[in-house]
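Not sure how to ask, but would you mind making up any protein sequence you like and the tokens describing how it folds?
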Amino acid sequence: MKIMTCPLNGPRNISEFVHGGEVREMPDPNLCSDSEWAEYVFYYENAITVVKEWWLHAPSGYWFIAERHTATDEILRTYDPSEIYKDRVDFSALPKESVA
């Protein structure tokens, strides 16, 4: 059984988690093209290295970051996103595009 340590809930069975993709700098949704946004959402390097990834502990709804080696699948570290991100992006506050 594979165990992941959730920063909020402690060691848990990996089946309780959902992968959310790599942690990457988000382009400005107001200024980027649809192509740039699609590249941000759907494409990544897929290199053998240590990557930072978003993970969700599904039972508690808690999102956190894990550093994982892509060749060994070893989870090296997990931590709260506030270690990296100090500000939240409020997508509901972004201006809406007018539909003609």
User: Anything to note?
Assistant: The chain has a mean pLDDT of 90. DSSP finds one helix and six strands in the chain.
